[in-house]
Amino acid sequence: MISFAVIPISVFLCLLWGPTLFVILRQKSSRRSRIRTITFSFVAELIAVAILAFLAEMAGLLNPAGYVLVITLATSIVGATSVYFLSQAPLTHHSSGTPNGAP
Q1: What is the pLDDT of residues 31-57, one digit of tens each?
Q2: How far, in Å, CA of 84 to CA of 81, rounded?
Q3: Inter-axis angle of helices 64-88 and 6-26, nearest 10
Q4: Mean pLDDT of 71-91
Q5: Are the C-beta atoms of 76 and 16 separated by less than 8 Å?
Q6: CA 79/CA 42 separation, integer angstroms
């Protein structure tokens, strides 16, 4: 039988990673680039939620389900937005302006 905790954890992870995954899969980039972005952003979002939830607990907030839900949604939106805007930023190349980097 499936444990009761699996359902809330699954909902939590879908809320956290769903928007970011949607943005990443809509990018026109290589598979390797997408996997690198997924790995970095998913871990960063999970760490951010854990730290913010811990800080909210230490601050003495009274509704743990409420602040975890708000922190999760806010982190998810910020993560998806940052992935979107970082994927739109042009790559900058630092070169001397001469062929083959000659002085």
Answers
A1: 888 888 889 999 999 999 999 999 999
A2: 5
A3: 20
A4: 88
A5: yes
A6: 9
Residue that is written with structure tokens 């979002």 in the block: 45
- In the structure encoding, which two tokens stand for residue 81, read together? 């937005």
Q: What residues have CB less than 8 Å from 72, skipping those under 6 apart?
A: 12, 15, 16, 49
**Burial class of residue 70 in the structure, from the number of CB atoms within 10 Å of its CB (0-12 exposed, 13-18 middle, 19+ buried):** middle
- What is the four-CA torsion angle of 89, 78, 4, 56, rounded to 10 degrees? 140
Position 99 scores a pLDDT of: 57
- Long-range contact set of residues 76-80: C-beta below 8 Å, sequence gap at least 24: 76/15, 76/16, 76/17, 76/18, 76/19, 76/20, 76/45, 77/19, 79/19, 79/20, 79/41, 79/44, 79/45, 79/48, 80/19, 80/20, 80/22, 80/23
